[in-house]
TrEMBL record:
Amino-acid biosynthesis among keywords: no
Organism from which the protein derives: Stenotrophomonas koreensis
Full protein name: non-specific serine/threonine protein kinase
One GO MF term: protein serine/threonine kinase activity
Catalytic activity from the UniProt record: L-threonyl-[protein] + ATP = O-phospho-L-threonyl-[protein] + ADP + H(+); L-seryl-[protein] + ATP = O-phospho-L-seryl-[protein] + ADP + H(+)
Pfam families associated with the record: RIO1
Keyword Kinase belongs to the record: yes
RIO-type domain span: 58-184
UniProt entry keywords in alphabetical sequence: ATP-binding, Kinase, Nucleotide-binding, Serine/threonine-protein kinase, Transferase
Broad EC category: transferase
Length: 225
């Protein structure tokens, strides 16, 4: 497998224009995401460098490395951006997808979702689940859906792919895809697919237990809704 290209910090300049900013990282461990040139080619940078020297720097490095590894594994696949490299350990450079996020499309024809469905199956066949599939994590460029944001993605080793958690992660990816499809195209989910993504009882039990505890925690600590 190809090694990940390591680039020095000065391979990309500081953010100088707001036009280049795609998303400002505001919450904890959210990167700034912006466009910049690397070696004269336009790229997207996910930048955690504001954490340099803080106690969160090792976590940010880990997030960068994980996403870089995922993209490297998917190299050459048209449904994921190509990895450009890791910049100074705390930033990631990747191919700029010149399109729109799925959530910003007014109308998308069903074919985009058919492609996305096949792409997701292909990803799952490789043992990878995306785990954060929603409208701003899918770009559509010239009618082709491209999955972005592999920060939460997970690769399950081959011998564990049939275990209940791996199966639940795959089901959850598919459920999110069907939710997006319904919202954008207005087409109801066919019953056989709806049955396929229905939650098993143990998942509902964990989910409602988790929700209850979280609500209790919020009430106790006065966390705004
Ligand atoms: N390779 C890319 N090409 C074009 N635009 C991109 C690319 N990567 C990210 N973007 C844009 O930047 C936005 C934020 O990127 P990304 O989802 O990776 O960051 P994030 O902080 O994890 O976001 P969130 O937490 O909202 O999911 C995307 O919604 C998209 O609009
Ligand atoms: Mg995202």
């Amino acid at each position: 497998m190809n090694a990940i290209t390591l680039l020095p910090d000065d391979a990309v300049g500081p953010l100088t224009s707001d036009k280049q900013l795609l998303k400002r990282g505001e919450r904890l461990l959210e990167p700034d995401v912006y466009r910049a040139a690397i070696d004269g080619r336009i790229a997207v940078i996910k930048d955690y460098r504001r954490y340099r020297g803080t106690f969160l720097a090792p976590v940010a490095r880990l997030l960068v490395r994980r996403e870089a590894r995922m993209l490297r594994q998917l190299a050459g696949w048209k449904h994921a951006p190509a990895l450009v490299g890791v910049i100074g350990g705390l930033a990631l450079g990747m191919e700029y997808i010149n399109g729109q996020t799925l959530s910003s499309l007014q109308v998308a024809d069903g074919r985009v979702f058919d492609q996305l469905h096949r792409a997701l199956e292909r990803l799952h066949e490789q043992g990878i689940t995306h785990n954060d599939l929603h409208g701003t994590n899918v770009m559509v460029a010239a009618g082709v859906p491209v999955l972005i944001d592999f920060t939460s993605a997970w690769r399950t080793p081959r011998w564990r792919r049939n275990n209940p958690i791996a199966r639940q992660l795959r089901r959850s990816d598919l459920k999110n895809l069907l939710k997006m499809r319904k919202r954008v195209t207005g087409v109801e989910v066919p019953p056989e697919l709806a049955a396929k993504v229905a939650e098993p009882h143990w998942v509902s039990v964990i989910r409602s237990g988790w929700k209850r505890n979280y609500q209790r925690f919020k009430a106790r600590h006065n966390v705004p809704a």
